[in-house]
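Dear colleagues,

For the upcoming journal club I promised to circulate an example of a predicted protein-ligand complex. I picked one with thymidine-5'-diphosphate because it came up in last month's discussion. The inputs are reproduced below in full, followed by the predicted structure.
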Amino acid sequence: MNLEIRLKEIRSIINSEKGSLAFFESNVDMPFAIKRIYYIYNVPPEEIRGSHAHKSLNQILFCPHGEIMITLKDGNTTETVLLDRPNLGLIIYGGIWRELKFLKADSVLVVAASDYYDENDYIRNWDDFMNHVTLGYWK
Ligand code: TYD
């Protein structure tokens, strides 16, 4: 399977009395530098976001609160990953289709990305994605 799934345990300082702290550093805890952070919130339960691929963007996803099911497709195989704790990260490289199902109310998805927002890096149509896979064409 060539699906690029990378689960990442995030360094954490656990304190059962005062609360815990998790952190990650650009280039240290992930194999790329971070240029952008965004988060998705206020999503109704069972709603699906994403449904696109990126040509070259690399990202790491976290769910610091709630539960989000991530489905990843490389055009040949499908994998699902449940993000359900604050110190679990999922790295997604370019060329992977993703669907993000927000399972619980008030779930938050935080994404650290390797580049600035660029609509030209998106593939939002499944047939276009499969053409890219078939032709082995990634930017
Ligand atoms: P999109 O990435 O399509 O979100 P989803 O997770 O639902 O697939 O982005 C939704 C909209 O927000 C789209 O119009 C692009 C815009 N957007 C930005 O302007 N900057 C950003 O950094 C991101 C991630 C999205």
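Two points we might discuss: Residues 16 and 22 are 13 Å apart (CA to CA). The longest strand covers residues 48-54.

See you all on Thursday,
B. R.
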